[in-house]
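step=encode ok
step=design start
structure_in=
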């Protein structure tokens, strides 16, 4: 049989991926760009039950135009669309990582809302190669060498064997013009530099190397799948024996840890190399009773010979209590003194809170104040705050608003707060890229 031409390779790649079963209800992630537009059309042509989902990250002026484009496309194709625009604060860290987290959270919500069996994402062979090069530049193991998995839970990538050039011809034949995301030409992003500079230079010097990278990624994916199967046989419900880790080669042991973490509800990918190394050290022979704090409020612990990942235990905290009284300006330790006449109340963190801390320089985000004070992430939403109206007045135990504080000896409000969580150092923020 002759190989498919470029205009057929998209539907052929979709079919040959084996990731979509006839009768499955598919939620298609559609940004409006070439790849996701081609995925949507190919799914329609293949006869799948489809619902489209579009997430507006609201990171660029006029981003709502992409949502309008996708809405119009879905209307013309007769496809139901779930659309959402970001209204919350972006997660701390890189913009790309934060956007990816919010997008996948949205897709999970949309899948639950629509009853879809799988979520199809339009990554292509070019994305695989770019991912491989990025991972190699950072330093990676076998899982990174595959670029990206074809399946992770309900998320599937059925176009990983389809090249971007095939996508363009597929759309041109159908007279469909996709959007072009400005971020795809922003060289501030490492992936764009790999796409526009590194890979073209390698291809010029070694013609065909891009496709050889892709073949190498496919081999790595097959090996990783085998490794995952070996690790899965060692899992024993919610716990696994420490001996299963110590008796396994390190790649298998690390994969076992990833699966144990995922089984406990940990998001993937989330564990950095530093996390995995700390987990493997814990499994080494020695006394139990120690533990490793992990992202998303989880903790690895050893009970006897069993290794378990459980929700991080929190000490019981009394309900917070605010006490306010008139004061002539004492110097009692652990007390905040604010200007008289303020109407104070207790509250908790909400997006966008800022204050100018006494003794600091300039206005600061509450998030940054918590980070500098080494408040564990899991405690930040339950840390009681003192407000004057809607303005943040006191972060108990940490900071006082410079605008509302009084000087020593001045008449003031004598303010104390009971029930502040204890600050605890943890490994939750270990450095390193997720691997």
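sequence_out=
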């Amino acid at each position: 049989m002759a190989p498919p031409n470029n205009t057929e390779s998209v539907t052929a790649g979709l079919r040959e991926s084996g990731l979509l079963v006839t009768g499955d209800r598919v939620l298609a992630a559609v940004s409006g760009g070439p790849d996701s537009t081609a995925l949507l059309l190919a799914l329609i042509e293949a006869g799948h039950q489809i619902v489209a989902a579009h997430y507006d990250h609201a990171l660029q002026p006029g981003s709502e135009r992409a949502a309008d484009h996708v809405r119009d496309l879905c209307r013309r194709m007769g496809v139901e669309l779930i659309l959402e625009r970001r209204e919350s604060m972006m997660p701390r860290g890189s913009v790309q990582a934060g956007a990816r987290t919010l997008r996948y959270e949205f897709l999970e919500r949309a899948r639950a809302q629509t009853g879809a069996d799988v979520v199809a994402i339009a990554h292509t062979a070019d994305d695989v190669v770019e991912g491989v090069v990025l991972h190699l530049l950072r330093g990676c193991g076998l899982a990174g060498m595959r670029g990206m998995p074809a399946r992770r839970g309900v998320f599937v990538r059925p176009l990983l064997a389809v090249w971007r050039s095939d996508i363009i011809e597929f759309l041109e034949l159908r007279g469909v013009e996709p959007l072009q995301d400005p971020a795809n030409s922003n060289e501030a992003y490492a992936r764009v530099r790999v796409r526009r500079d590194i890979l073209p230079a390698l291809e010029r010097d070694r013609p065909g190397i891009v496709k050889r990278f892709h073949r190498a990624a496919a081999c790595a994916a097959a090996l990783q799948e085998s490794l995952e199967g070996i690790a899965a046989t060692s899992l024993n419900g919610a716990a696994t024996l420490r001996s299963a880790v110590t008796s396994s080669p390190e790649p298998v042991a690390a994969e076992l840890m990833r699966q144990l973490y995922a089984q406990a509800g940990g998001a993937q990918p989330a564990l950095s190399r530093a996390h995995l190394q700390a987990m493997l050290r814990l499994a080494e022979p020695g006394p139990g009773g120690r533990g490793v704090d992990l992202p998303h409020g989880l903790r690895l612990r050893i009970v006897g010979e069993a290794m378990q990942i459980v929700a991080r235990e929190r000490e019981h905290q009394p309900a917070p209590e605010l006490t306010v009284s008139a004061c002539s300006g004492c110097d009692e330790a652990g007390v905040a003194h604010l200007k008289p006449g303020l109407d104070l109340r207790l509250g908790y963190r909400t997006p966008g809170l800022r204050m100018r801390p006494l003794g600091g320089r300039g206005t600061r985000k509450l998030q940054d104040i918590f980070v500098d004070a080494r408040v564990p992430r899991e405690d930040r939403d339950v840390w009681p705050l003192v407000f004057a109206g809607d303005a943040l007045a006191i972060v108990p135990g940490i900071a006082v608003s410079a605008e509302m504080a009084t000087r020593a000896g001045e008449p003031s409000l004598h303010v104390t707060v009971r029930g502040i969580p204890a600050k605890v150092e943890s490994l939750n923020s270990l450095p390193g890229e997720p691997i």
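step=design ok
step=annotate ok -> The longest strand covers residues 49-56.
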